[in-house]
Each structure stands twice: as C-alpha cells, then as structure tokens.
Amino acid sequence: MKHYFDSNQEELLLKFLAKQEVSLSDNQLEKLFDYVQLVIQGNEKVNLISRNDIPKFLSRHIADSLMPYIVLSKKNFLKPNMIWADMGAGGGCPVFPLAIACPEIQFYASEPRHKRVLFLEKTKNSLHLENLQIVGKRFETSEISNCDVISCRALSRFEADYERALPALKKDGIFVTFKSKEIAQELKNIPNVHLIDYRLPLENLEYSLVIKGIYG
Ligand SMILES: C[S@@+](CC[C@H](N)C(=O)[O-])C[C@H]1O[C@@H](n2cnc3c(N)ncnc32)[C@H](O)[C@@H]1O
C-alpha cells in the first residue's frame, strides 16, 4: 500500500479509525492520501485551507470529515443509491472523504466560488470519484433535491443552514452538521436534534456532530 508522506499523521488517522471501530480498504486510504496531496498542491494557487492546517490535515480535517460516515454506518442508516448533498464544499471537506468512504452513495457538492469549483472538478477527476457531482452554484439555486442526507461544515449558523437544506430533503431525510461541543449545547433542546460528541487526534477542543432527523 502507498503511504502518506507523514507517517505520524497516517498512524493518527488509522488509530482514530480503529478506535471508532471502522476500517477502510487500502484503496480508500490511498485515495484519502491522494486527496490531501491535491489539496496541498491546489492551495498554492487557490485559497482552500489555512496554511497552518497543512501539517495536521489528515488527523484533523480528514478524521473530522469521516465522522458522519462513522456515526451513520454504525446505525445502519446508509444504504446504496442514497443521495447525499454537501452545502459549501470549499476545498472538499467533508464531501471528498465521505465520497471515498461510501462509494455506493451518490454525492453532490455545492460550491459557488469559481476557482474552488475548478479545483473540485479537477480533483474529482484525478481521483476517479464517479459517485460525486460538483455543482458550481449556491445550494439554494442548485436544483439539488430529494436528498436522504444533507451536510455542511463551517458554513453558517445551524438554523440558517437547516432552513437552506430543508426544501431539498426527503421527508425522512436527515440534516448533519459539525459544531464545537460548546456551541452544540445550545441546540440540544431543538426537536429531533441529536448530538454525538467526539474528539480528534491532537486537538484539545471537543466536537459534536449535530444530526436533525431520525437516523436509526
Ligand atoms: C468556510 S468554507 C467551508 C468549506 C468546507 N466545508 C470546510 O469545512 O472546509 C464555506 C464555503 O461555503 C461556500 N458557500 C457560501 N454560501 C453558500 C451557499 N449558499 N451555498 C453553497 N455554498 C456556499 C463558500 O463559498 C465557501 O467555500
């Protein structure tokens, strides 16, 4: 198997996955490593991520991006041919790691900024991600609809993001977003909101995956 350029980072990700009791194939891990390389290279031309984040991209952003897969697959929520849209894809987290982890799910990545869209398209093609479609529009005008899952990371406030997602969700679809544990506490009394707390390697902060809807 091809390894990541930083063996410490690779080990941290593998330990994180093992602790979460999930495993990815060698091919999936290699694709994740290739994706990170493409983000680091792409960041030279387009502002995709903070430069400070590069050394811990695998242990922080990739591990974080995989959390919805980890939580939803343990609950047997994920089924082949489901439709999953990510709003505000930016440099591709969480949608690229998720599309790599769940090849049987059809993903849509909505992102309005042109340079980012070009990067996402090129990266999708390099990684041969047939189950991912890049949509170069704001989510509200993207015409993406009938989704089983809609996610977003670092987009806006929970209420605004949920409102943005709702028209495109199936009746029994779920909305998933990422917050710090502290911010997520403010959301715990909203009907049908579930908070799943977690930690990431090397990070002091605690995080919560916020899911609105019934997922298992
Ligand atoms: C802070 S970045 C987060 C990127 C990525 N999700 C991450 O976690 O690294 C937010 C992204 O959302 C995009 N965006 C802003 N409003 C949007 C909307 N209405 N629909 C889709 N994308 C939007 C921005 O262009 C930007 O790339």
TrEMBL record:
SUPFAM superfamilies: S-adenosyl-L-methionine-dependent methyltransferases. Pfam families: GidB. This is Ribosomal RNA small subunit methyltransferase G. Keywords: Cytoplasm, Methyltransferase, rRNA processing, S-adenosyl-L-methionine, Transferase. Its EC number is 2.1.1.-. It comes from the Bacteria. Belongs to the methyltransferase superfamily. RNA methyltransferase RsmG family. It comes from Hallerella porci. InterPro entries: rRNA_ssu_MeTfrase_G, SAM-dependent_MTases_sf. Its main location: cytoplasm. S-adenosyl-L-methionine binds at G88, R153. It is found in: Cytoplasm. GO terms for molecular function: methyltransferase activity. Specifically methylates the N7 position of a guanine in 16S rRNA. It is an enzyme of class 2 (transferase). One of its GO terms (biological process) is methylation. NCBIfam families: rsmG_gidB. Coiled coil: none annotated.
